[in-house]
Design a protein that fits this description.
single chain, mainly alpha, 1 helix, rod-shaped, membrane, transmembrane helix, transmembrane
């Protein structure tokens, strides 16, 4: 029984870790897109 619980717990932790890594990557991409988009808008506004 204890080993089963430990295995489920370990699998759960691995899932959370994988999700966290994915979320971190996703947030980084969103921030990069936001920065690029802002600089594009600023350069367009400066040209007008």
């Amino acid at each position: 029984m204890g080993r089963f619980v430990w295995r489920v717990f370990t699998a759960y932790c691995v899932k959370i870790a994988a999700f966290y890594e994915f979320a971190k990557m996703y947030i980084l991409i969103v921030v990069l897109y936001f920065i690029i988009f802002n600089s594009l808008i600023i350069s367009v506004l400066c040209k007008i």
